[in-house]
Amino acid sequence: MSDHPEAPVAPVEAYELPYYVAVFTTVRTQDQGGYGETNARMEELVKEIPGYLGMDHAQTPGGLGITVGYFRDADALAQWRSNAEHREAQKRGRAEWYDSYTLHVAKVERSHSFTREQRLAEG
């Protein structure tokens, strides 16, 4: 969901299991009028959902975008999916901003993380 170059370059941490992910992969159209503002609003809105854990986003030079949203449980994900403002943004995305997209939702049953900083501190 984010196009912010100033966003920290670090993945979302591994959470206590289980949790859910929504993987949204996109190819955008040339006309992106209004996308940035709507995207910023969606980022504000999703943070209000109880059970929202965070998101990762990456964009390839060729234009493929991948956003992974992390949610504590299926109820939190359902609340995001049914948010009226989010539904309107989805409609506009299909009409204006996306050439194509896929959405994959999964329950995470295994998760771990690594940071070089952590390893160096452990010795």
Automatic annotation (TrEMBL):
InterPro entries in the cross-refs: ABM_dom, Dimeric_a/b-barrel, Jasmonate_Hydroxylase-like
Domain ABM: 19-92
Molecular function via GO: monooxygenase activity
One Pfam family matching this protein: ABM
Coiled coil (residue ranges): none
SUPFAM superfamilies, per database record: Dimeric alpha+beta barrel
Keywords of this entry: Monooxygenase, Oxidoreductase
Domain of life where this protein originates: Bacteria
Protein name: Antibiotic biosynthesis monooxygenase
Organism: Streptomyces mangrovisoli
Source organism phylogeny: Bacteria, Bacillati, Actinomycetota, Actinomycetes, Kitasatosporales
